[in-house]
Amino acid sequence: MKRKWLNMLLLAGIVGVLAACGNASSEDKSSGDASDNAASVAAIKKRGKLRVAVFGDKAPFGYIDKDGKNQGYDIYLAKRLAKDLLGDENKVEFVVTEAQNRVDVLKSNKVDITLANFTVTDERKEQVDFANPYMKVAIGVASPKSAPITSVKQLEGKTLLVNKGTTAEIYFAKKYPDIKQQKYDQNTETFEALKDGRGAALAHDNTLLYAWVKENPDFEVGIKELGSVDYIAPAVKKGNKDLLKWLNTELETLGKENFFHQDYDATLKPYFSDDITADDVVVEGKAEK
Asked: How far is 24 from 16, CA to CA, in rounded Å?
């Protein structure tokens, strides 16, 4: 009889453990689903805030002004997205990020959308879902006017300054692996390094370089375009079809009202020289044919 009761107690214990494991698995799964849905359109509306990753030091695309406010081409777009989704352009929470963290902030559900001047590449498509493009760009190279770099061949035996996680870094690593790269996390660090002579030239998005040399007339964009013309687009977490669908519809609607030309006039035009036009830079909400 004693043995029978021991067996029954043992069996009850096993059943309890199995039930607990089952509950834990269900909780884990439920928690995972909740995390995955945290950036859905319904979740954003319930939260009342659209969380957007932007740059804090990449004028005129995304930067923080002297009053501590986010400004720039990407910020102008983010506010309009918040207005159309939540009824108020102020219902946007800006999360400042670095180039190499633009994917991670989506994967970790810290933001709903990444707008940080994010160039579409095949490698990045494997990690995030890109919406329609709203800008086009190529790689450029800036250098001092006193020692101009006008061809890649001139970089042999010299140091090229780049930002980590950018298309410029990837392009030169693949196409010109023998050219020494000096890499920095922040744009401010990279441009200060060029001013200090720590490299012969700096490779970055040509649109950014056009703006920077206008403010720094001792430098020039000696190489205006390398590689193919690429597109910049908003990105969402991989598999977030709900938000992606809303975003693509929204971008096409904005394109019909010429929104991105307005954005250019408000945020980019003052930074560029007169030989650069909106049509050189913007895309009105869907891929060009």
From this structure: 12
Q: What is the pTM (predicted TM-score) of this model?
A: 0.73
pLDDT of residue 33: 39
Q: What is the tens place of the pLDDT at every residue in 135-192?
A: 998 999 999 999 999 999 999 999 999 999 898 999 999 999 999 999 999 999 999 9
- Report residue 135 CA to chain centroid gap: 13
Instruction: Provide the 10 A C-beta neighbour count for residue 207.
Output: 25
Express each pLDDT in 102-128 by its tens digit: 999 999 999 999 999 898 989 999 999
Residue 60, preceding peptide bond in cis (omega within 30° of 0) = yes
**Residue 92 zone, left/alpha/beta (φ > 0; ψ -120 to 50; rest):** beta
Instruction: Delineate the domains of the chain, giving CATH numbers in brackets.
Output: 39-134+233-280 (3.40.190.10), 138-230 (3.40.190.10)
- Main-chain phi, psi angles of 214, to 5 degrees: -65, -35
- In whole angstroms, what is the distance from residue 188 CA to residue 98 CA? 11
